[in-house]
């Protein structure tokens, strides 16, 4: 190993210093006259080589600070824990431009969720901050003060953690300042009455209030328990009327206002076979008679091909004028458009009420279209179906999650408890 230089750190000559060496380097009258002094006030430059062998330097006000820095950086270079400070001086916005192309999710809904977390929350606050300027306390205060809601804190912190964790891996910063930041919002708690789906009788009232075209669609959703994107994306090819089953193979998703076809359900468990009840079969046959969907098989990346969809809106296959040209309406069901019809129907049925979301503070209408799925799961449990079978039919990876999400208090729970307590039996004390 070569001998260390005796002039490292070295003092940098200053134009404002009046010592003999600085006066010699920057003599008057070319440089302004300054007061003569014995000791130099110039900064100290510490020079070192990074792990790649590149010459690097950093200036300090005092010689002791420069020597301490050299001792530390030489140790980190030997131990391979060295991070070039300049690599951490890029802004978080610049790091996003490097990081996102390598981590952009293929699933559209996941991609949009992460983009929303970045553009709405992270970029406006931290985009112009340098990576090495981010601190734990600043991020924790921001989460507590500015991020409202448990779900928002969860999603935003997840993305910020991923970005800063990879900045550590890329040797831009020595540690992740968001690593131990905690969520301060509590998970939302709703009243059981706001979670319980409508009864069968209430659904009949809603169905009667829906326009005739949408009644089979409501029947199909109630009797299959499919997610919105699953039944709106159901193609004729995947409806087996001989075996009376539905094969869930793809979905329709909303990509920031544009409906797109996606070949992957919510999870891998989403690929499943769902039975057709007589009511669901009649609903499907009604829609098939109306639209005569094609039984062709097209590739997911070839476009929507709405002519294959079973459940579509009333304007499907009709034409309208756009810029003087006749255009065929695809009629793919949009959640926002159907919601208008749904709200009118539940109001006419006399069961609608406004429910305040405890997390966002916004008011929402009850019941929701997704409550069909809740009621479907509750019916399966009430019929004594095993947890693993309910899990499969609903397309969930964990059975416990199915029970927690979709099983609600039975309609006769209070009556059953009253009968159990008044049937003459006494409670036993258990020690």
Automatic annotation (TrEMBL):
Region span, Disordered: 177-196
Keywords carried by this UniProt record: DNA integration, DNA recombination, DNA-binding
Domain annotation Tyr recombinase: ranges: 190-419
Keyword DNA-binding appears in the UniProt entry: yes
Keyword Glycoprotein in annotation: no
Family under the similarity heading: Belongs to the 'phage' integrase family.
PANTHER family per record: PROPHAGE INTEGRASE, PROPHAGE INTEGRASE INTS-RELATED
Name assigned to this protein: Tyrosine-type recombinase/integrase
């Amino acid at each position: 190993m070569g001998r260390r230089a005796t002039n490292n750190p070295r003092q940098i000559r200053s134009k404002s210093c009046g010592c003999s060496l600085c006066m010699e380097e920057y003599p008057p009258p070319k440089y302004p006259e300054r007061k003569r002094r014995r000791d130099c006030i110039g900064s100290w430059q510490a020079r070192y080589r990074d792990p790649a062998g590149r010459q690097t330097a950093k200036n300090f006000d005092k010689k002791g600070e420069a020597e301490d820095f050299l001792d530390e950086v030489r140790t980190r270079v030997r131990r391979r824990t060295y991070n070039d400070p300049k690599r951490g001086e890029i802004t978080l916005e610049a790091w996003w431009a490097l990081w996102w192309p390598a981590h952009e999710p293929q699933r559209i809904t996941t991609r949009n969720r992460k983009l929303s977390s970045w553009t709405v929350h992270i970029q406006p606050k931290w985009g112009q901050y340098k990576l090495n300027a981010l601190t734990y306390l600043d991020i924790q205060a921001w989460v507590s003060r500015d991020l409202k809601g448990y779900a928002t804190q969860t999603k935003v912190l997840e993305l910020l953690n991923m970005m800063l964790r990879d900045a550590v891996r890329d040797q831009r910063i020595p540690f992740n300042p968001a690593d131990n930041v905690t969520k301060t919002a509590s998970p939302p708690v709703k009243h059981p009455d706001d979670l319980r789906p409508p009864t069968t009788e209430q659904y009949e009232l809603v169905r009667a209030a829906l326009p005739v075209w949408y009644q089979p669609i409501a029947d199909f959703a109630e009797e299959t328990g499919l997610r919105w994107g699953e039944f709106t994306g159901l193609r004729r090819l995947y409806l087996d009327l001989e075996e009376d089953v539905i094969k869930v193979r793809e979905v329709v998703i909303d990509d920031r206002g544009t409906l797109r076809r996606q070949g992957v359900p919510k999870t891998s468990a989403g690929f499943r076979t769902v039975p057709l009840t007589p009511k669901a079969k009649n609903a499907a046959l009604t829609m098939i008679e109306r639209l005569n969907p094609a039984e062709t098989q097209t590739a997911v990346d070839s476009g929507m091909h709405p002519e294959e969809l079973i459940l579509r809106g009333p304007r499907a296959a009709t034409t309208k004028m756009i810029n003087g040209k006749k255009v065929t309406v695809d009629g793919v069901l949009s959640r926002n458009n159907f919601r208008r019809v749904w709200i009118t129907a539940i109001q006419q049925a006399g069961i609608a009420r406004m429910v305040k979301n405890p997390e966002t503070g916004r008011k929402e209408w009850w019941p929701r279209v997704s409550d069909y799925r809740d009621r479907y799961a509750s019916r399966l449990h009430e019929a004594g179906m095993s947890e693993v079978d309910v899990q499969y039919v609903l397309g969930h990876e964990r059975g416990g999650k199915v029970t927690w999400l979709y099983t609600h208090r039975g309609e006769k729970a209070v009556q059953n408890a009253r009968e159990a307590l008044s049937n003459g039996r006494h409670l036993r004390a258990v020690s």
